[in-house]
Design goal:
The chain is an alpha/beta fold and 437 residues long. The protein has 12 helices and 17 strands. Strands 3, 4, 5, 6, 11, 12, 13, 14 and 15 form a 9-stranded mixed beta sheet that branches. Strand 9 and strand 10 form a beta hairpin. Bound molecules: flavin-adenine dinucleotide (FAD). The site of flavin-adenine dinucleotide has 44 residues, from helix 2, strand 11 and strand 15.
């Protein structure tokens, strides 16, 4: 039976008030699932992990239904920093320590391929994800010029990244702060409008035949039979295969996946246009993140507003957020005293304990694709391709992620543990800064 179309606004939570929702290109209001549908593959979750999976499957001619509880890109994917670069939340060295050099390289390369695929899809599907600006700078908080230079050479040799080392003097030209030492510019990484991109990927998946339902939270699943049944408040989907991509918003949907997910709050502020004052502080269009574990990341928009992200907390909607975030900006750029926020917003990242995505198969026809943490705009496209190829082509690349399993993330104590870990990281950053003096 073909589900009837109904306006999505009935039960979908609206987008959080943010730079992205204020400037989103009127996304189509997608239907609520309010009948029984059948498909080959049902994807649950309309963030970039789910949408990249759905698009990858649609591109391979498969029959897909995607169910999103709220709106496409409502979660982390449509409210983040908009930085797109290769890699994962877990650093390459740590990945290598766990799986060895060859598999670590293969895992890292997946994200570099995904970066190119994102650019290709933006062109191919004519997605307006602007303003798009090339270049992301890693600004070193610690004095370690030789180490940084050597690491840049190693990464360039190994992955042909074209990274550019920046001396302290070069950094002083771009950033009017004493806080940074040297830097490394990644010229192929870029910044974009993540909500418009996410909606563009949804449009592309629909154009390829995928059916997307918003306001359609999955409330129950029977995954034990050959034909899986997925229930929402008003309808159901029968599917041969299911891919669960709910990340930090998974709640209690699936005991094993929910227990392996640590929902962690993090925040972004958008300032008013700074006009000429921007030049007093930041003289580059590059996105910038510093090298602390508990770091800040920011980018100037073409109209001189500053989009600034940082902080991690178990509190998913803290009070005085604008004030706290402006305070963070002033700690680096005190010369910007007096600037005001236009809007600040929280988002929830879904972390795994090991900080790598969790990608794999739970049982016949039951897949998961989640846990991208704070570094998912590129990696979700990699993960979507890996799962789509596994389902459509019996490709086994997904097995590279097997060492990063569904470890218990602490249950109700998880957010508190994450908060303590963040405070620990801040102390570690202070210690590293003191030692590097
Ligand atoms: C503030 C912030 C800044 C960030 N900055 C960056 C950045 O600059 N660069 C970068 O690479 N990464 C960044 N990240 C991380 C990145 O945004 C995430 O890793 C990525 O978006 C995760 O995508 P996802 O699809 O796994 O999760 P989400 O985008 O959170 O999507 C999960 C979706 O599942 C839906 N869902 C949940 N339960 C159900 C259910 N029962 N039924 C149906 N649907 C359901 C939710 O409504 C949600 O839409 C940031 C994250 C945050 C929060």
């Amino acid at each position: 039976m073909v589900p009837t179309m109904k306006n999505a606004t009935t039960s979908a939570a609206p987008y959080v008030d943010s730079y992205y929702s204020r400037s989103v290109k009127a996304p189509p209001s997608r239907p609520v699932l309010d009948a029984d549908a059948e498909c080959d593959i049902c994807v649950i979750g309309g963030g970039m992990a789910g949408l990249a999976t759905a698009l990858g499957l649609a591109e391979r001619g498969r029959d897909v239904v995607l169910l999103e509880a709220n709106r496409v890109g409502w979660g982390a994917s449509g409210r983040n920093g908009g930085f797109v670069s290769g890699g994962y939340s877990l650093g390459l060295e740590e990945i290598e320590a766990r799986v060895g050099r060859a598999d670590a390289s293969a895992l890292f390369q997946l994200t570099l391929d995904a970066l190119e695929l994102i650019k290709d899809r933006i062109n191919r599907y004519e997605i307006d994800a602007g303003p798009m600006r090339p270049g992301i700078m890693k600004a070193s908080w610690f004095a370690n010029a030789d180490g940084m230079k050597a690491n840049t050479d190693v990464m360039n040799e190994r992955f042909d990244l074209g990274l550019e080392f920046q001396s302290r003097e070069q950094m002083r030209e771009l950033y009017r702060t004493e806080r940074y030492h040297e830097g490394v510019l990644n010229p192929t990484a870029f910044q974009f409008h993540s909500l418009n991109f996410t909606n563009g990927i949804a449009d592309a998946a629909e154009a390829g035949g995928a059916r997307i339902f918003e306001g359609s939270a999955v409330t129950h699943m029977d995954l034990t039979r050959d034909l899986k049944r997925i229930d929402t408040a008003k309808g159901s989907v029968s599917a041969n295969q299911v891919v669960i991509c709910c990340s930090g918003y998974i709640g209690h949907l699936h005991p094993k996946l929910s227990r392996a997910t640590l929902p962690v709050g993090t925040y972004v502020v958008l300032t008013e246009p700074l006009g000429e004052r921007l030049q007093d502080a930041i003289r580059t269009p590059y996105g910038t993140s510093d090298s602390r574990i508990a770091n800040d990341y920011y980018r100037a928009l073409p109209d001189t507003r500053l989009l600034w992200g940082g902080r991690v907390s178990s509190n998913l909607s803290p009070r005085d957020l604008e004030k706290k975030m402006i305070g963070d900006i002033l700690r680096i750029y005190p010369q910007l005293e007096g600037i005001r926020a236009e809007v600040a917003w929280p988002g929830t990242m879904g972390y795994s304990v090991h900080k790598m995505p969790q990608i794999g198969r739970l049982s016949d026809g039951v897949w998961f694709n989640q846990g991208y943490g704070g570094h998912g705009m590129c990696a979700t496209t990699a993960g979507g391709e890996v799962v789509a190829k596994a389902i459509a082509e019996s490709d086994e690349t997904y097995k590279l992620f097997a060492p990063f399993g569904l470890d218990f993330a602490g249950g109700p104590l998880g957010p508190l543990i994450a908060q303590c870990a963040y405070w620990g990281f801040q102390l570690q950053d202070l210690w590293s800064a003191w030692r590097s003096k």
